[in-house]
Write a structure and sequence with these properties.
alpha+beta, rod-shaped, 3 domains, six-stranded antiparallel sheet, Helix Hairpins, Beta-Lactamase, 13 strands, Heat Shock Protein 90
């Protein structure tokens, strides 16, 4: 019980919602820490230089006003306005009359900071000088009474009036402390709000993924009842859901068809003594051959669900692999069903007269790409039409299986690499069709085993080029239905497959 609870908690910790919440919280915390550090390192310096520019601008504006002969009341209003807006004390002294214009509550007798122009250069050597020019020095000094730092401007206007401006900088430390407290408070609130937002937003993404996971697990257990319902946004998850729905429908249709035909086979079991053995073999073949594609489908589906690949191109590739494996399963099951119908005599043939020479030429033409790719010399010298009586659809399958097998297993022997197709009239009733290819001979055991289902001479052949291994089983089933001869013979430097057909009826 405790183990199950621990496992459940571990699964929850791995969930997308938890990961998203933790990622967002960590991002917020790092951002707040970064802002606090920036505040402590930059804000005070920025404030000081901003204040420096402010007092320098006041100096420039006063210069302009005096140069434009503004009235005393206009200048006095300007001083009050700038004092109130920028929190500065301004003193302007007329050296001729010792008249002082100020907004400060301090008496001028308590200020010992008026300097002549000749003393500005000496003052500019002080350590905390922020700005200096011929007529202006801006520096940081400590008040003798309060011992608090101030930004001080000392200068001489163009009309030779002496100017003294000062503003305290101690307020910035209090502002910095309050700013840091606000940032921390905002960070705590952001974490709390993010928990709510993540809970809401993550459902939009995690619920469809969990739904797709449930559908995929059901499909792995051959339960196709669940279907994905796309949203109105029609995003990548909806496209994936639609692809899985298509795959589910194909598999469901194929399995249903398989079950329906299996029901028919079970009814025939009562009539045929070997049906039980054949049914057991059929189920074994199906379970063996479908195991790999179903495992691939489940693996790629789980990869999509776990969001292994985040880009759209990779997700599309995974969906295409799933659909391709579904198509292969569909093709394999249909071939198996066709083979079973042929073996049980449940398939009706549409027999008619047709030219087997023309049919052979058409089969060679369809395989022309494979022939040229392997640079094979194919010899077929029959030119005159030969009429036979059979179902041309199944005879084309037989010929195609023989020719494609000859191409796959052809080998160069004594400098020769060739395929020879020949059609001869054996007697008044039968026509013999043979396909010879250079290569190694079969052993006695191989000559018997090749007609069985899923048997392959080369067991190491890959899934793409190896075929399903039921081609020769279809040949055997078709020929048994016609009760005509078929087989394989070892020849010099190669092997020859053959089958016989009934001559055409008048």
């Amino acid at each position: 019980m405790l183990k199950e609870r621990a496992s459940s908690k571990f699964q929850k910790a791995k969930s997308i919602r938890v990961k998203l919440f933790l990622s967002l919280c960590i991002t917020i915390i790092i951002t707040i820490i970064f802002l606090v550090i920036i505040n402590n390192l930059v804000l005070e310096t920025f404030y000081i230089y901003n204040k420096k520019d402010s007092v320098k601008n006041i100096y420039d504006d006063l210069n302009n006003k005096y140069n434009h002969n503004d009235s005393y009341s206009e200048i006095q209003d300007f001083v009050r306005e700038q004092s109130s807006r920028n929190n500065v004390d301004i003193y302007i002294r007329n050296p001729s009359t010792n008249e002082i214009l100020t907004n400060s509550k301090f008496k001028i007798e308590n200020i010992e900071t008026f300097y002549k122009l000749s003393n500005i250069k000496e003052n500019a050597k002080w350590r905390d000088v922020l700005y200096k020019s011929e007529n202006v020095v801006i520096k940081i000094v400590k008040d003798k009474v309060t011992n608090k730092p101030h930004i001080v401007l000392q200068g001489v206007l163009d009309n030779q009036y002496e100017l003294y401006i000062r503003t305290p900088v101690s307020a910035i430390k209090e502002s910095l402390r309050i700013s840091n407290q606000v940032l921390i408070f905002v960070g705590i609130i952001s974490v709390m709000v993010s928990a709510i937002i993540v809970s809401i937003v993550s459902k939009r993404f995690s619920n469809p993924i969990l739904e797709l996971n449930g559908i995929a697990k059901g499909m792995s257990k051959l339960d196709f009842s669940k279907k994905y319902v796309p949203s109105d946004s029609y995003d990548e998850l909806d496209e994936l859901g639609i692809s899985i729905n298509m795959m589910s429908e194909r598999l469901e249709h194929t399995i249903k068809e398989l079950k329906d035909n299996n029901d028919g086979l079970e009814r025939d079991i009562k009539e045929k003594s070997k049906i039980e053995e054949m049914r057991t073999q059929f189920i074994s073949d199906v379970s063996h051959e479908l195991k790999t594609p179903i495992a691939l489908i489940q693996g790629y589906a789980e990869g999509l669900i776990e969001n292994v690949n985040k880009d759209d191109e990779s997700r599309k590739f995974y969906a295409e692999v799933i659909l391709d494996e579904a198509d292969k399963m569909d093709k394999l099951v249909k071939q198996l069903l066709e083979l079973m119908k042929l073996e049980y005599g449940k398939r009706e043939f549409n027999n008619s007269n047709f030219d087997v020479v023309a049919l052979t030429q058409e089969v060679i033409r369809k395989c022309d790409v494979m022939i040229k790719e392997k640079n094979i010399d194919v010899s077929f010298e029959n030119a005159e039409p030969i009429q036979v009586y059979a179902d041309d659809f199944y005879i084309e399958q037989v010929l195609t299986n023989y020719l494609t097998n000859a191409i796959k297993y052809l080998q160069e022997v004594n400098g020769k690499k060739s395929i020879v197709i020949d059609i001869v009239e054996k007697n008044k009733e039968f026509v013999r069709v043979s396909v010879y290819n250079t290569g190694k001979n079969f052993t006695d055991d191989e000559m018997k085993a090749i007609w069985g289902r899923f048997y392959k001479i080369d067991a190491s052949r890959n899934r793409e080029n190896g075929g399903t291994g039921i081609g020769l089983s279809l040949v055997k089933a078709v020929m048994n239905n016609y009760k005509n001869k078929y087989g394989v013979n070892n020849k010099k430097d190669g092997v020859e497959f053959y089958f016989e057909l009934n001559k055409a009826k008048d």
